[in-house]
């Protein structure tokens, strides 16, 4: 199993551009989540999902959209990038309530 | 919303000693609490889970306690080794209809010196 994969690893965007961060898992996990981590800080939840067609907002959802059309994939869309969205983005998947989170390697995004 | 506090200052200890990390929260007690290890440039790695009705959990050299009265979890690493040097994050988990809602603390950096 590849586990949780994220693409790209690095990305530089200009203010106002849009893009999609990809996340996929091959463990058949129902639960998937997106986090951002800023320097010296813990992770903050952006959006999460319990299965295809079911998503909800986390702590910092503004400026981001998600959809979940399959169990395997959970893309995160930045609608109009802003410098405040410069961060490292982690995707994670888990099984069941309270289940351990399996994290991807992260995408380092810089918005200029 | 939950506010979680972990000691933001680095914890420096000598090899072989027990490291104790603290996680305090302010509001309702979560259904679950987890601890993760994060190395620089990598995603967090799961270590231990404890449920709200459990007082203590152990795994090899790791032990976590959960006191819902004090609103605190303690994470212990016994017989610490330099390889234990990393940042440790606690996370509170609230299940919802849309999945697991996790709130992370800011993490505590542990440095184990030989």
Structural class of chain B: mainly beta
Instruction: Please report which band the strand proportion of chain B falls in: under 5%, 5-15%, 15-25%, 25-35%, 35-45% or over 45%.
Output: over 45%
In DSSP terms (H or I, runs of 4 or more residues), the helix count of chain B works out at 0
Number of helices of chain A: 0
Number of strands of chain A: 11
What characterizes the major β-sheet of chain B? 6 strands, mixed
Please give the radius of gyration of chain A in angstroms: 13 Å
Helix and strand pattern of chain B: EEEEEEEEEEE
Helix content of chain B: under 10%
Average pLDDT of chain B works out at 93
From the alpha carbons, calculate the radius of gyration of chain B and give it in angstroms. 14 Å
Structure description:
The complex is a heterodimer of chains A (112) and B (114). With 112 residues, chain A is an all-beta fold. Chain A is built from no helices and eleven strands. Chain A is globular, with a radius of gyration of 13 Å. Chain B is globular. In chain B, the strands form two sheets. In chain B, strands 2, 4, 5, 9, 10 and 11 form a six-stranded mixed sheet that branches. In chain B, a hairpin with a 2-residue loop joins strand 9 and strand 10. Chain B is built from no helices and eleven strands. Chains A and B meet through strand 4, strand 5, strand 6, strand 9 and strand 10 of A and strand 4, strand 5, strand 9 and strand 10 of B.
Structural features:
heterodimer, A: 112 residues, mainly beta, 7-stranded mixed sheet, 4-stranded antiparallel sheet, 11 strands, 50% strand, B: 114 residues, 6-stranded mixed sheet, 5-stranded antiparallel sheet, 59% strand, globular
